[in-house]
Write a structure and sequence with these properties.
Its cofactor is a divalent metal cation. InterPro entries: Ion_channel_UNC-93, MFS_trans_sf, SAM-dependent_MTases_sf, SAM_O-MeTrfase, UNC-93-like_regulator. It is found in: Membrane. Helix content is 56%, strand content 7%. With 701 residues, it is of the alpha/beta class. It has three domains: 82 residues; 151 residues, 3-Layer(aba) Sandwich (Rossmann fold), CATH 3.40.50; 410 residues, Growth Hormone, Chain: A (Up-down Bundle), CATH 1.20.1250.20. Strands 8-9-7-6-5-10 form a six-stranded mixed sheet, with helices on both faces. A four-stranded antiparallel sheet has the order 1-2-4-3. Helix 9 packs parallel to helix 10, helix 11 packs across helix 13 and helix 11 packs parallel to helix 15. The longest helix has 38 residues. The protein is elongated and about 100 Å long.
Length: 701
């Protein structure tokens, strides 16, 4: 029986076990069938090929000494007479046969093969890239495919057929890997290029490895078929075909851990510095004004940061962002000796630019690198490593100022230590790989885009302000950093002395680690349905947030700006220290759970790094705009009780909007309710998408 099947448009090869088997097929079965065939196809009258010319012997042992049947015109006519072709399609084909470039249309035998594949697959949504006589969607095929991805149609198609510009095949293929669902099929025409791919003497550039290497089965998937110069790709286990195991694959967990370490050194230390209240100064005015400048520029470059990240890649973007943190810490060192706010405010504005770049890139990596079912886990991993920086950063002022019980401003060594960590983070950021080189744990790539364009990013960023999904996230984004000025300055800064503030920072950021792990587990493992997990996550955060802000209200009623509390010390204040300390710890817990929840929501909207960098950039921009206003609210001495009520109200308003987002924007996985099948005998054909539709993109050449 046949062990392999390859069909060229003009040559048909069937490998047989013995010469006897082949001869019998030709002399009896084939001839008998030919005599009874009533075909509308004309035989090639001028062909003088005998039946013996149909056989070529491949004596090489590596082919198993098999024989090859070549398609003669008579044999091809025999094949065509057995093709089931509807009458209307036959008429259309014959009408198009007289048109210019008619050789591009699909032949009847090819059409029957494609129809059979679609029927076996149960395909409902199909994409055809490159058409001949019809064209439903005009424009460049690659741009059309990208627009489908941007519209949230990833993994929603069952079948794709490509017969278009050959030089673009690799890009078409990579984009289709995102659009075709788990278990779908991609068929690509002309992968053998009329046999030239195996001809070392052919000068045709289309046969060179860089044009087709990524399409060859040994580079994509062990279960591939080449037929009719078409390559069929089928992946039964993952959304996209896997890379071969023999090629080293950069795991997605490593870069997420690495970006966590970068943020441990830079924003982690920044959080520890800010968490002491007033940037470690007795008067928070300079810190408030610097933070206002910081979050103002952050709000602009946070939105732009996703586009900048897509254009320049992670190394340059993250390194540029990280380099601004040490300058900010150094400005407070300068302020210790020269109490002029100018340098501190300028450093804050510069840091806002850098932070916008860093957090947009970080968000893209954290949300796009994990697989669909492990996004919460990766967010927890990053958040734990990042906030460990706040823990270590909190220990720095605690130990360096431990014996300074009456001091109000931290010493120079504290700022120097922060600067050392922040500089190390900038250097470490240069080791991060671009997303196009990172492969997820299931073998899929994080993105297929290496570099974007300024015009593309500008257009896509502007579209975010009309994106209903992003608009639903605005209240959550606005409130997620709005409470920092209140918690840092008016809880930790007002209620505790200097060394205790450092200790509180350790536990505040430690609580963030616990909170992110807890909510990450609930968002990934609590239920099989992703929608249900989203609802559960919102419910947990809403209930916990209500309880914590309620406790904060009870605490706030005990003091005000006009009647500040007596400074508490962890060693000498006894039971009076316990209540406010637990409250501040819970504030850190809630912060991590709230922000991790929002990040998970954003991550559930897409999988591609290019798209998610823009989404996260938008989120960070809105978040920073809220923070900029919050720091000025505190600088203008707004009553503390009013600040608490505003913070509580903003977070509460965001919960029902996130529920709407889960209901209408977040989709359940196809396999969410089914265990993985390990039986190799199963067909593993996954039910097609429910929506009907057929898209034809681009023009064939």
């Amino acid at each position: 029986m046949a062990s392999s099947l390859v069909v060229n448009r003009f040559t048909f090869f069937v490998f047989r076990e013995t010469k006897k088997t082949v001869s019998k097929l030709h002399s009896s079965s084939l001839s008998a069938s030919f005599r009874g065939c009533k075909s509308n196809y004309r035989f090639a009258r001028n062909c003088s090929v005998s039946s013996a010319d149909a056989f070529i012997v491949a004596d090489d042992d590596k082919y198993g000494n098999k024989q090859i049947i070549s398609v003669t015109p008579r044999l091809y006519d025999y094949m065509l007479c057995n093709v089931r072709e509807p009458e209307i399609l036959r008429q259309l084909r014959e009408e198009a046969a007289g048109m210019r470039g008619c050789q591009m249309q699909v032949s009847p035998d090819q059409a029957q093969l494609l129809a059979m594949l679609v029927q076996i697959l149960g395909a409902k949504r199909c994409i055809e890239v490159g058409v001949y006589t019809v064209n439903i969607k005009h424009g460049l095929a690659a741009d059309s495919l990208k627009s489908l991805i941007l519209n949230g149609e990833s993994s929603s198609y069952d079948f794709a057929f490509v017969d278009a510009e050959k030089k673009m095949y690799q890009e078409y293929f990579e984009l289709l890997l995102q659009l075709v669902r788990v278990g779908g099929v991609i068929v690509i025409d002309n992968v053998l290029w009329h046999g030239k791919v195996a001809d070392p003497m052919s000068p045709d550039i289309k046969k060179k490895p860089d044009a087709y290497a990524s399409l060859e089965p040994q580079h994509r998937h062990p279960y591939s078929i080449v037929t009719n110069e078409k390559q069929l790709f089928r992946n039964n286990n993952n959304a996209h075909p896997k890379l071969p195991s023999k090629i080293p694959r950069p795991s997605s967990i490593a870069p997420v851990s690495l970006i966590g370490l970068v943020c441990f050194c830079c924003p982690g230390m920044f959080n520890a510095l800010g968490g002491m209240g007033g940037g470690g100064q007795v008067d928070p005015t300079a810190s408030n004004n610097a933070n206002t400048a910081l979050y103002t520029t952050f709000s602009i470059f946070g939105v732009l940061g996703g586009g900048i990240y897509n254009i320049f890649g992670p190394r340059l973007t993250l390194a540029a962002g990280c380099s601004t943190y040490a300058l900010y810490a150094g400005s407070f060192l300068y302020y210790n000796h020269n109490p002029d706010q100018t340098f501190v405010i300028i450093a804050g504005a510069v840091l806002g630019i850098g932070a916008g770049l860093l957090w947009a890139g970080q968000g893209a990596m954290m949300t796009s690198y994990p697989t669909t079912k492990r996004k919460g886990t990766y967010i927890s991993l990053f958040w734990s490593i990042f906030n460990l920086g706040g823990v270590i950063g909190g220990l720095i002022p605690f130990f360096l100022n431990y014996h300074r019980t009456k001091a109000e401003s931290v010493n120079d060594k504290t700022y120097v230590a922060f600067m050392c960590f922040m500089s190390a983070g900038a250097v470490l950021s240069l080791t991060i790989l671009p997303p196009s080189r990172v492969v997820r744990d299931d073998g899929t790539r994080c993105t297929n885009i290496k570099y974007s364009k300024v015009s593309t990013e500008a257009f896509e960023i502007l579209k975010l302000f009309l994106n209903w999904k992003m608009l639903l996230i605005v209240p959550a984004a606005w409130s997620s950093n709005f409470f920092y000025s209140y918690q840092f300055n008016n809880v930790n800064g007002l209620m505790f002395n200097l060394r205790t503030r450092g200790l509180n920072s350790v536990f505040y950021w430690g609580a963030q680690m616990l909170g992110s792990i807890g909510i990450g587990f609930a968002l990934d493992f609590s239920f099989q349905s992703r929608k249900t997990r989203g609802f559960v996550g919102i419910g947990i955060v809403a209930l916990l947030g209500t309880a914590i802000w309620g406790g904060g209200l009870a605490n706030q009623l005990n003091y005000s700006r006009g009647h500040p509390p007596q400074r508490l010390d962890f060693k000498t204040s006894g039971n009076d220290f316990a209540g406010p300390f637990v409250l501040y710890f819970c504030y850190g817990l809630l912060d991590a759970m709230f922000q991790s929840l929002v990040y998970w929501m954003i991550a559930a909207l897409a999988d591609d790094s290019e798209i998610l960098s823009r989404y996260v950039g938008f989120y960070k921009g809105v978040q920073s705009a809220g923070a900029a206003i919050a720091w000025q609210v505190d600088a203008h001495n707004v009553p503390l009780l009013n600040q608490l009520i505003a913070n509580w109200s903003l977070t509460t308003v965001s919960y029902p909007l996130l529920v709407v987002l889960v209901m209408f924007a977040i989709k359940d996985d196809d396999n969410s309710s089914k265990p993985a099948e390990n039986d190799s005998t199963q067909t593993s054909i996954i039910p097609p998408a429910a929506n009907n539709g057929y898209n034809e993109l681009g023009k064939s050449t």
